[in-house]
Amino acid sequence: MSFERETKVRQWMLATVWDGGIQRLDDLHVDHIDESWKEPTSWFSAGLIAYGIALRIRDELGIDVAVALAFSLLDAQDTSPDVFETQEEFEKQFDWSPPSLYLFDVGDQQHLAATIRVDPLPKALFSHFPEDTKSFLLRWLADNGNQRRSVIIQAS
Fold first, then answer.
1. Domain count for the chain
2. pTM to 2 decimal places
3. Exposure letters 107-127 (e unless 16+ CB within 10 A, then b)
4. 87-100: per-residue pLDDT in tens?
């Protein structure tokens, strides 16, 4: 299965880099990498695995891009946390959409413009990521008036 996952991520990365997908914000949801990642209970670990695969492929191919992992969260309410104390608390905030990978031009921070908090995730989770990894909680007003939220994980 690992080879199939790597093949799907590699194909997506190359297509995204070469056909303008970075500018279109083409993403790759984890459930499109591996069908066994359809269940929300697998999303956090699936995201970590997919992110690791993408970082390895980027380095192997020498592609000059930033790799990001995005988790879409439930719309903000008055009681919605801006900091997550545990992995379980974070996972309870996932909405209906599986996490996905994105590629960005190095140095482009436009996708982080709606950041309201840096490093909202528990410190314990960062042992799973490269040393220079940060997380960002984003919040923005959707067309329907709802306060949308997501967390982006990205190594600098």
1. 1
2. 0.94
3. eeeebeebbeeeebbbeebee
4. 999 999 999 999 99
